Amino acid sequence: MKTFQCTCTDKPILFFESNQCLNCAKTVGIDDSFDRVEPYEQDAKTGLFYKALQPEIQYRKCDNNEHFNACNGMVNLTTFIPDPANEEEVLCFGCRFNETVPDLSIVEHIPLWKKMEAAKRRALYTLKALPIPLQNNTENTETGLSFDFITDRDVNDHFVSPLTGYEAVLTGHNCGHITINLAEADDVSRSQTKHAMGERYRTLLGHFRHELGHYYFDLIIMPTPEKQALCKQYFGDDQLDYQEALDKHYKNGAPENWRDTFISEYATMHPYEDWAETWAHYMHIIDTLETAQNFSITGSTSVIAEDAEEDIEEFGELNLPQDTSYFLRQRDFNNILDTWMDFSVMLNALNRSMGLADAYPFVLTQAVRTKLTFVHYAIHNKLHLLPKIAPTEKKKEKISKK
User: Fold this and answer.
1) What is the Cα gyration radius of the chain?
2) Is 140 helix (H, G, I), strand (E, B) or coil?
3) pLDDT for the residue numbered 85
């Protein structure tokens, strides 16, 4: 994630979630282009906002920004098209993906909803920079994306007690619609689930990226028989019975040698989950490397050169996949993976210095790197340019179809 700058004296840093410059107190936010956070001037007469270099274009704060401080979205009133179902509602790019938000009459839900919004917007920012479709279900009723943030349990005991009359809420994806249980935004509840399931990593942002992986599998792999057939070579037969695979996974667990070919234990459950887990890690990697590159941090674990600027320059030349000219400027995705493996060592060492668990407790075997490479080429619609490498060998018991 990049940082940004205000235009006032000393040009202080603005972060992705910033809604006010701490130096000049101006309102800052992100418009529907969803590519930068910047300052806005306010018209004293109308109360509307404008950018200093474009005073003729008027903006309003997103309703969720204005009333709940749940985002920092700014809405261009010139191009904004109201939702026919609620023409009075003014929502920004990120908030227009919401189908259902938590019951905000329960005040304890509000800070958890804010966490959901922050994670969702970070996930969307990375997607927006990549050459893949990103439309809400109003813009595209057939393949658009939408979210439900709901719960079936009581927030007051960290989502232990079921709420009477509510159906069970399971985090998941279904035909472009992603549901995430509000309990995942509660640190206590999420930590309890993490330990109960023996997971090494469980975050709110990770949930978004995993479920978005399912969404994009349907969007960029399934419509093309050739892509689906190629994907099976790397991830396995996605036609295997899902429920049977799920039951088997929770009964027997992952195979002992799962680390050889999978990024996580959950990825062993079914090819769909292998794809979604790999997709999520691809997003983790390119977003974190973008952050490191933004701060000119080198990822090298070798002896530091006498001239520190030399290391910084080398890292700065890493052409990340968000760059639309990526395939013209960099030939080998292995460069990014090698840089990530070096950088993750440093990242984990920094966490240990603070007494924290490893930020990235995963190992990228050659088989996992192969799958990440496939996701990379699928995102850029360049599967025909995949290096001539042998597909991942999977030693898995066959699951009979029902």
Assistant:
1) 22
2) coil
3) 73
* Residue 241: closest CA among 397, 43, 377: 397
Chain mean position to CA 285: 11
Please state, as a whole number, how many other Cβ atoms lie within 10 Å of the Cβ of residue 283: 24
- Angle between the N-to-C axes of helices 366-379 and 225-235, in degrees from 0 to 180, rounded to the nearest 10: 160
Q: What average pLDDT does the segment 200-229 reach?
A: 95
Detail the DSSP E strand segments found in 10-156.
13-14, 27-30, 37-42, 49-51, 54-61, 74-76, 98-100, 146-150
The pLDDT tens digits for 5-54 are 999 998 999 999 999 999 999 999 999 999 999 999 999 999 999 999 99
What percent of the chain stands above pLDDT 70?
Answer: 88
CA atoms within 13 A on the CB side of 367: 19
Helices (H), 221-261: 225-235, 242-252
| pLDDT of 186 above 60 | yes
How much helix, strand and coil, in percent to the nearest 5, is found in the chain?
A: 40, 15, 45
pLDDT tens profile 103-137: 999 999 999 999 999 999 999 999 998 999 999 99
The residues pairing with 134 across neighbouring beta strands, listed in sequence order, are none
* pLDDT higher than threshold 90 for residue 402: no
Tokens of 321: 């996949």
Q: Report the DSSP beta bridge partners of residue 180.
A: 149
Q: What one-character-per-residue DSSP string does 260-311 give?
A: GT-SSSGGGS-HHHHHHHHHHHHHHHHHHHHHHHHTT-----SPPPSSHHHH
Is 362 buried (19+), middle (13-18) or exposed (0-12) by CB count in 10 A?
A: middle
Residue 389's alpha-carbon distances to 241, 370, 374, 386, in angstroms, are 28, 8, 11, 8
